[in-house]
From TrEMBL:
InterPro entries the record matches: LMBR1-like_membr_prot
Origin superkingdom: Eukaryota
Keyword Metal-binding: no
Pfam families for this protein: LMBR1
Coiled coil: 235-289
Protein name as catalogued: LMBR1-like conserved region-containing protein
A cellular component annotation (GO) from this entry: membrane
Entry keywords, A to Z: Coiled coil, Membrane, Transmembrane, Transmembrane helix
Species assigned in the record: Paramecium tetraurelia
Membrane topology: Multi-pass membrane protein
Membrane-traversing stretches: 6-27, 39-59, 79-100, 112-137, 193-216, 311-334, 354-376, 404-429, 457-476
Lineage: Eukaryota, Sar, Alveolata, Ciliophora, Intramacronucleata
Amino acid sequence: MDVFLIIIICVLGLLLMYVNIYLLALYCHPEDGGFGSTLFCKIVVVLGLSLSWCQTLMLTLDVTNEREQQGLDMHLCWIIIYISVFVMLVLLIPLAIFYYESDDEKPICQRISLTIVQEFMVLVFAFLTIFLTYFWLRDALVPVTVQVQDAALQFESSEIDLNIDTFTITEEKQDHIATTIDPITFTIGLMCFLGYFFLILYGGIGMVALPLDLVCSYGTRPKSASQATEKKNRLKRLVAQMIGYAKQLRDMEKDVKCATGWWSRRKQNTKVEKRYQKLVSAVSELEEEFEIFLLELDIGNANPLVYIFKLLLGIVLFIITLAWLLHLLLYVIITVDGIPFSPWLNKLFIQLDIYNVAFLSVFFFGLFTLYLLWCVTKGNLVFSMPWIFKFHPMKINETWMNSFLFNIVLILISSVALCHFSTCVFSQYTRLTTVDLLFGTQIKYLKIFSWAFENKVFEYSLFSWTILAGIIQMIMKCRKPKLLDQIDQKKKNLKGNYEIELKELFLK
């Protein structure tokens, strides 16, 4: 196998593992930090994310194995991967959720026993569902074209001339071959079918949200950092003035005590009280302005190159999103007599194979599939926030482990559908691979799924939802970073004229 490809897969695997751990650390609630009672949950989260990314890397490995005839048993590899996904979905993740949500004031044995009982109910439900659906819907009808031919055979001595030119097609008809799918393949198909709904929902949102957020972060980048130095000197001057006013106020209080007559003392005391209240209010305003200064100072420490990098990355990701949409339009949606209008990305990958740069074709194929999974993850983070209602929201430094685990279930099951989706939209490039035979021949023609797959319901849905979600997000416009929102809000709350009021008051 290509050494370059092996190195790329290993590097990507390590990089994605780091990304998984980083996401966990970034979104995890501080109370769930550390390696205490939530250690098992965190391991499950990292394993779940790794399994989702691993499937896309397996696609590139499968393509390379088929092209170079390396002899790897990819069918066994795929079965191991999907059994691992199934175990994660019905065993490890539910166990982690049930144990995490159990009452931590109860004894450990009681918590474990309750978790086992709840997990047993999940397993019964899962296997009962699979058994019933498999018993009734395990048959697949694979379409075939039957050709009846006549041959004008000429015999010369004992030899028969079987020249193909002598054959004539007299009849051609479409038929089906009925076959029974094994339970493991059927379970993979069931996970794939369920995962498509989340792939469409999250993938459509993420394909626009991912590049849009990066570009908007440049458009709303901090621009007030240059004022921080000027404000620092101004705040120093104001603090010195406040101290001077406080000293004047203290001297005035001494004069009140020395004043003769009740009316005179009362008049001066009222004057001092009025100035004291004004000074307290001014000090409070100054403290607010100092907080704004600290926030702007934090912004000033940000590297401006980060925002330029985000802009460039956002533009590149926009191009990839447009390439995805154009590929769906030309290869899936627009057809002429049942034939795709253009192979588009399929042709690009195949041409790279022809020109002896197969590693580039595998690289770009992996890039597009990984990007789609990245979009699914981004869409999950965006949609889990309160658009219409809160549903296990994912927020930075505010995400509890049960919310993490729940969203990992959705991402993991979406990744199964993503593999099928990739083999369908890149069918010319992935032809004869193991995953193509698994998804394109067996699962695709299962009775329960065949109508949706043959009529390209999911491909049409993803294309339409991506366009609609993109329009909605464009209308919502780019939001300012949270830090700039805090600064703007604090500036609105400031009166801004307390310095003038104090001068006028103390000069009277």
